[in-house]
Amino acid sequence: MSPSEPAGPPPSPEGPHLLPISRGARALVIGLGAAMLVALAFGAWGAWIVFSPAASALPTPAEWRAAQAHARDLEQQVATLSRSDQISREANRDLQDTLGERDEQIAGLRADVAFYERFVGSTAQRRGLAVHQLTLVPQTDQAWHFTATLTQNLNRGAVNRGRLQLVVEGTHDGKLETLDWPRLRQQPGADGMAYSFKYFQQLEGEVVLPPAFKPLRVTARLQPDDGSRVDQSFTWTEATEPGPADVPEPTAVAG
What is the distance between the alpha carbons of residues 229 and 181, in angstroms, rounded to a whole number? Predict the structure, then answer.
């Protein structure tokens, strides 16, 4: 090389330089890479949806409509069965009530038959005028409804006539007191209730007790038109809670 030729730049110890890349080109390369990654991700998701077992189990629109119709049918069947069960329960309850009423009627008829057999049967004990049963049922704190069953089978075919009165014994303010028929009826001079029968008769009426009066015993007093008076006494418990206890024997009182 001659001294007149200009000297070139000294060679680089690191080898030849690459062409410089502009900032815009670099951004473009990064954007394309990101787009490719997004596309690959969507593709993988779509493939999973299409080929996964869950995707194959998804119902078609027709199957979905059929399933909805079947569900409605099942709901209707459940509603129908529930209504049928309610109707059956109500019918069973009504039947039980009816059977209970029939049982009460049968028990009452059997009691009547037993009464008739004991009273008018061939082996019936002959008894004169008597109070077969006396019951009192409270109406208020002081008022009571009474039912007296009068019987006689000694003089068959004969008509018994007379009057019934009640007398109540008890305590009032710690003292013994007896309430006669006029006081029980709250009618001064009240006469007894008339009866007339051949074999038996029921008489019903009302009596009123004074306030703070505690009854202990009630006596049914029968005064025939011709004959001696008959008294039968019942404890207040026997009269208000009648049971299978024997009826007290009548007591004849000369009148």
Answer: 15
